[in-house]
Amino acid sequence: MSIEAQYRFVLKRIQDSCEKNRIAHQVDLLAVSKKQLIEKIKELYHIGHRKFGESYVQEAVEKIELLRDLEIEWHFIGPIQSNKTKYIAKYFDWVQSVDSKKILTRLNNQRPEDKQLLNVLLQLKVGNEESKSGCSEEEIFEMIKSSSEFAKLKIRGLMCIPPPAFDEKIQKEYFQYCYNVFKKLQMVAELDTLSMGMSNDLESAIACQTTMVRVGTDVFGARD
Hints:
Blueprint: H1 3-20, E1 28-32, H2 38-47, E2 51-54, H3 57-66, E3 73-76, H4 85-91, E4 94-98, H5 101-110, E5 118-124, H6 137-145, E6 153-160, H7 168-186, E7 193-195, H8 202-207, E8 212-215, H9 217-220
Parallel strand pairs: 1-2, 1-8, 2-3, 3-4, 4-5, 5-6, 6-7
Helix pairs in contact: 4-5
């Protein structure tokens, strides 16, 4: 199947799920392009897609430099190491995986003056997997309260990566928790983005009001 056919199929899954769940808002697709060839990114771009997600800083910077003439909106979605924040602050339009005030501070301090505000999603920890990054609900509320300290950042909402689950009921329990936290945060801050749902659970995420799903191999095919 061609990239265009795969892309259209994922868009139809999103549309069908929105119709089934009577979702009134737009659900964006973030095409996760980590470990994918430049040619595949260009192909998807020329079909009309603009939002791409990367997880590895060095690989991403090389791609962004090579594709600088294209109007791509680049999202960083991987774990953030302190020694990589200067590159994320310089090259990306969005960062979805912020899990500490320390990282917020570094991104703010390292964002170039000539760049627009860096859009930020705070990563909410879901489930009890020790290996997963993320903040507690309480930590996220504290970061939201201190958002005025970060003049070069715009906190837009939450991202979450629940533990793998094949049971739709369990998937929805995780996503409903994230949505409930998001709604509480909206009472104290202007937030508009809830990034949750990937290839195997995007329908459950849409049922729980996600505004953005992150899909990689179902769009691009196998990674190179």
